[in-house]
Amino acid sequence: MTHPNRRPTPVLLLSGPSGSGKSSLAARTGLPVLRLDDFYKEGDDPTLPLVPGSDDIDWDAPGSWDADAAVAAVLSLYGTGRTEVPVYDIATSSRTGTAALDAGAAPVFVAEGIFAAEIVARCRELGVLADALCLCGRPSTTFRRRLARDLREGRKSLPFLLRRGLRLMREERGIVARQAAQGAHPCGRAEALDRIEAAIAAARARNAAIPEPATPAVRKGTPGRTAV
Asked: pTM score, two decimals?
C-alpha cells in the first residue's frame, strides 16, 4: 500500500546470469539497490534443491531463493520507501542479520539478482514495475568474471566454484532465454543504461503529474481555545 503523502517508487528489475555485471551496473546508476541475493534460503533449509546427479546444492535454481519475501520487500519500498532486508553471507550460506533500506526521494529503485526475472510477472500484475532487464554478454567473459569474484570473496571452495562455473557457462544461453521468456529484456550494458535512464525519466514525469497532497486548512480561533 502506498502512503497517502508519498509518491510511489517503482522497481527496475535487473536479472542476468551470475557474473554478468548486474551489481556493478546497479551501483553505477546511483539509485537505491535491493540485493535480491540476500533472499537466499539458509544452507540447512531442507527444501534446497540439488544439482542433478550430485550432492551439490543448486544455488542457481529458483527453489534456493525466497521469492515471496523478495516481493514483499519490493512492495514495501514501492509504497513506503523503506524496508528491512536480510543480510546474507554466501560463504556460510546463512543470514547474519537485517538492514534497513531507504529509497529516499529516488524516482525508481533497482532490484538486482540472478532470480530477478522470477518476479517480473508478479511485479507487473501488482503495478509496481518500471522495467525488467536481463544483462547478458559472452559466456566465456561471464565465466572469468564470476570465478574471479567468487574467489576474491571466498564464496565457496575452488572445486565447487569450478564445477558450478563450467556448468553455468554451458547453460548460459539457456538461462538468458528463460529470463527473456519471463519478461526481462536481454541487453548489453550500454542498452541497459539507456533503458534505465528512460525508466527514470518516465517515473519523474509520472510523479510531476501527481497533484501534491492537499494541506488541511487551519481555522482561526480564540487563543487557548479550539476552533469549531
From this structure: 0.84
